[in-house]
Amino acid sequence: MTVIVKEAAIPDSKLARAVTEYIRDSETDLLFNHSSRVYHFGALAGVGRGLKFDRELLYAGAMFHDIGLMPSHSSKDERFEVDGAHAARDFLLSHGISEEDAFTVWTSIALHTTPGVPQHMHPVVALVTAGVEMDVLGLTYDEYSDQEREAVVSAFPRTPRFKEDIIQAFYDGIKHKPDTTFGNVKADVIADKEPHFHRSNFCSVIRCSHWHG
Predict the structure, then answer these.
(1) What CA–CA distance (Å, rounded) separates 205 from 207?
(2) CB–CB of 169/69 below 8 Å?
(3) CA distance 72 to 26
(4) What's the rounded Cα separation, in Å, for the pair 30 and 136?
(5) Comparing C-alpha atoms, which of 22, 10, 30 is closest to residue 64?
(6) Which of 29, 107, 112, 175 is most buried, most CB within 10 Å of its CB?
């Protein structure tokens, strides 16, 4: 890959290499390439916005953000984002990263499907979500140059049917615990794949509580 700006390159460090090896061995090609693009788009967004961010922490957050979709890292009743956040935190602590930095990465993964919040938080938290929103939703597509987009996708290709493939990957990773989609965007994935899915309703939960009134 042609490095567009060195500030957005994958860190050449022992930690980054360990992250790459771990995710390469744990995820599908689809998710590995997606996560790699998330890092680059997030880093490029950070450079473009003039943010100061730790590339190692951003790389860890981006690469681990979807590992909770994999059976090997999926719990029975936690949101997949939380499963991924736990995996990243444990990995980082085992590699000598401080509790504070590990928690920053934890937060970046736990909140990456909670739009409107991460952008106001620590740069690593904001930029993991920025990368996800670019690669999955294309929300900021026009904020990247043709050269930037082509370089990232050339290095880490999108499948010909990436849109459908990523939705299927989401579904495969959460279908065994639909209740974890309450209050977040993944309820839309279950509803798309299961026409008879009855999603929990925030207002119904309020109305059916034990409180009077």
Answers:
(1) 6
(2) yes
(3) 8
(4) 12
(5) 22
(6) 112
The predicted-structure confidence for 103-119, as pLDDT tens digits, reads as follows 999 999 999 999 999 99
Rounded Cα distance, 42 and 48, in Å:
10
Two structure tokens written together for 66 = 């979807």
Token pair in block for residue 95? 């590699």
The model's pTM: 0.93
Query: Among 154, 156, 136, 158, which Cα is nearest to 146's?
Result: 154
Instruction: Specify burial of residue 118 (Cβ count, 10 A radius: 0-12, 13-18, 19+).
Output: buried
User: In this predicted model, what pLDDT tens digit does every residue of 160-202 receive, in sequence order?
Assistant: 999 999 999 999 999 999 999 998 899 999 999 999 999 888 8
Q: How many CB atoms lie within 10 A of CB 185?
A: 12
